[in-house]
Amino acid sequence: MIEEAAMSSSGMVIECPCGVVLRGDDETDVMSQAQDHAKQTHDMDLSGDQARGMLRPA
């Protein structure tokens, strides 16, 4: 099951391997969401480079 953390019809998206989909208007927004999600949900630090590598167009 894929859970959508935020809704947007355009912009950027990161899909976590756990199934959470993070969406935002720009890469900075989505990268920040991904870093917060990684820390809060998985107790891990996600670097900016790691988050950037996961970015895809929405």
TrEMBL record:
What's the short name of a Pfam family annotated to this entry?
A: DUF1059
InterPro entries per record:
DUF1059 (IPR009409)
- Residue span of region Disordered: 29-58
Top-rank taxon of the source lineage equals: Bacteria
- Composition bias, Basic and acidic residues: 36-45
Protein name per Swiss-Prot or TrEMBL = DUF1059 domain-containing protein
Provenance organism: Nocardioides seonyuensis
